[in-house]
Amino acid sequence: MKPGQYFTLITGIIFVFIGVIGYIPGFVKEPTVTPDTAYLSFTIGYGYLLSLFPINVLHNVVHLLVGLLGIVASVSLGSARLYSGVLALFYGLLTVMGLIPATQSTLGLIPIFGNDVWLHGLTAAIAAYFGFIATPDLLELRTGESSTRSEG
Questions:
Q1: What is the band of 1 on the pLDDT scale with cuts at 50, 70, 90?
Q2: H or E, element range at 139
Q3: Helices H, strands E: what count in the chain?
Q4: Rounded CA gap, 77 and 91, in Å?
Q5: Chain segment 98-143, per-residue pLDDT in tens
Q6: Contacts of 28 (CB under 8 A, 6+ apart)
Q7: Tell me, what's the pLDDT at 25?
Q8: Which residues contact 11 (CB under 8 A, 6 or more apart)?
Q9: CB neighbours of 126 closer than 8 A, spacing ≥ 6?
Q10: Chain-wide mean pLDDT for the chain?
Q11: Cα(30)–Cα(49) distance, rounded to whole angstroms?
Q12: pTM assigned to the model
């Protein structure tokens, strides 16, 4: 398994975990920002995960979907790179949307403001590395072995 595949698998597992604990009341605290102030019309399960990150039921569904896709994509280097690239673009867009008051509730459905902004930005940056920058060399793609193997 290549580093990009490990990133995709670990990211997938983390997102599934986050999605699951978002449904457990002990991990979700009362929101500090009212739904009206946040321009949030879908409020089922609205609260702060770990007292830090605004979520609701739809947000948890997105986390579960992103996580399951990551786990599935980790089976090959090509699918892991594609997943990482799409994840970088998706979470980069969410970062920008979270900074703009008119879009930080994604049409009133999912809260993406506050601490979500920096977390989405960090996720996008790391995913961009594995999706666009860390590329295997041609020998590694052809044979599955790294060309920097030590001889001994």
A1: confident
A2: helix 138-143
A3: 5, 3
A4: 21
A5: 999 999 999 999 999 999 999 999 999 999 999 999 877 655 656 5
A6: 22, 45, 47, 48, 49, 55
A7: 96
A8: 67, 70, 87, 123, 127
A9: 7
A10: 91
A11: 9
A12: 0.88
Rounded distance between C-alpha atoms, residue 151 and residue 149, angstroms: 6
Residue type, 26: G
Q: What's residue 147's pLDDT?
A: 54
Q: How many residues does the chain have?
A: 152
Which tokens hold the place of 119?
């977390």
15-36 pLDDT, tens per residue?
A: 999 999 999 999 999 998 999 9
Query: What whole-number distance in Å separates Cα of residue 125 and Cα of residue 55?
Result: 22
**DSSP β-ladder status, 53-55 and 47-49:** antiparallel
Cα-Cα-Cα-Cα dihedral sign, residues 148, 2, 87, 47: negative
CB 39 within 8 A of CB 106: no
